Amino acid sequence: MTMDTNGMLLHWDVHGKGEPLLWLHGSLGHGPDWQYIFKEPPAGYQIIAPDLRGHGRSTGAGATYSFKQSALDMFALLDHLGVDRAKVIGLSGGGITALHMATLEPSRVTAMVVISAPSTFPEAARAIQRSFSEATLEESELVLMRRRHPRAGQLELLIAQARAFADGDDPNFTREQLSTITAETLIVFGDRDFLYPVSVAVDLRQAIPRSWLWVVPNGGHGPVFGRHAPAFIEISQDFLSGAFR
Fold it and tell me: Which residues contact 42 (CB under 8 A, 6 or more apart)?
């Protein structure tokens, strides 16, 4: 499905039936990435899986990427679907988008799982971002990314956006902003994330009032795929059902 909003064509898919669950993929990902974790939609939820601005089948990419604008895009999508409040799972860049949603309109996000998403980019991560290019990717990764982003020049622009993160100011959440989040929040980080140390996750846990922290042992960036998926499915579903209260 596609809609015209905020100067872009936004594409999304819907899977399953039940309570709205917004899935926000990471940078250079696309909506269907949820299927790398869940073999089918979690019971009792309807997954809303957009391709974020400029990614996959969605248009609207610019020279730089705004996670805040991505959050506004998501509110427009929820409005279009007639969804007032939703739960959210956000991975990496999608997690930053979720944080924006939860600070811009706190009442609209009832619970969220934020995976490998910092409040701001540490200097070590910015150094990695500045050097990011096709040459830093394995050939198998490039093949997969070109399938996700097939339009001429699309992948190249997304890679350039990722480099530009290093000198941008989004995300740049203050502790005061994070303290306004009312959503129950599960923060998920790997203890071997090459971009963000666990201290970033601890800072989020201390700033967000109703939050829990799960540090995945031997987990890298986005530690919810592959061998980590079964544990993530169990813990995230327990959390979203309210079992952590």
Answer: 16, 21, 233, 237, 240
Structurally, the chain folds into a number of domains equal to: 1
For residue 150, give the H/E element and its range.
none
- Single-letter residue type at 237: Q
In whole angstroms, what is the distance from residue 57 CA to residue 216 CA? 32
User: Does residue 179 form part of some domain?
Assistant: yes
**Is residue 50, in this structure, part of any structural domain at all?**
yes
User: CB neighbours of 86 closer than 8 A, spacing ≥ 6?
Assistant: 20, 21, 22, 48, 78, 108, 109, 110
SS3 235: helix
* Stated pTM of the model: 0.98
Specify the pLDDT at position 130.
Answer: 97
> 60-75: per-residue pLDDT in tens?
999 999 999 999 999 9
